[in-house]
Design brief:
single chain, mainly alpha, 2 strands
Length: about 190
């Protein structure tokens, strides 16, 4: 069982307090596992300038939605292609008994996904996009807006849902109300180019 990395303990540590035994190791393990990225630490000169002048990107268009079918598609297609949820549950129990290492990897992947989803929804870092069905392009867009300076520009390749989907309405409203949206072009690639 973990020691519990809390904001209170981290604030105390920043003020010079000692950490409980094992807490620093837990922090190191979590940092390795999740590979946290702190913009202000990696780019301190940009932080002093209140952000980047330009942010360009083509973030992943992937929903944060762990699916057993996708996870097992390559490694255990019989689980992925189970006829129904009850059959899949039985196959997962068999996997737990017959291949404990594979089942352990599955459990770890599912737990990582669940923690990521909780972070997006409840950390407070994504107030505009950490809602409903979270798509990575939405949270990348919100991050780009956070790291660009007030007179800077963002150029992002995003799905049209950034301006049309219900779960992005707060972000779109923010873009409109703050006059941060200069252009939004939509392309329909019917030719498969």
């Amino acid at each position: 069982e973990g020691i519990g990395v809390t904001m209170g303990r981290l604030r105390d540590f920043a003020k010079g307090a000692t950490m409980p035994d094992g807490l620093m190791e837990e922090v190191r393990q979590l940092a390795t596992q999740y590979q946290f990225f702190h913009w202000h630490l990696i780019f301190p000169e940009v932080s002093k300038q209140k952000g980047f002048d330009l942010v360009i990107g083509n973030p992943p268009w992937e929903k944060i939605n762990f699916k057993d079918e996708e996870y097992f598609a390559d490694s255990h297609p019989h689980i992925a292609n189970a006829a129904n949820k009850a059959q899949r549950k039985a196959l997962l129990e068999k996997l737990r008994m017959d291949e404990p290492l594979a089942f352990s990897r599955y459990g770890a992947a599912k737990a990582t996904h669940d923690r990521m989803s909780i972070f997006f929804r409840f950390s407070g870092y994504f107030p505009l996009t950490g809602v409903s069905r979270i798509n990575l392009y939405s949270v990348f867009c919100e991050t780009a807006l956070r790291i660009v300076n007030p007179t800077g520009f963002c150029g992002l390749v995003l799905a049209s849902g950034i301006v049309t989907d219900e779960n992005n309405k707060d972000l779109f409203g923010f873009l409109i109300n703050t006059k941060r949206l200069a252009h939004a072009w939509g392309f329909d690639n019917r030719e498969g180019v």
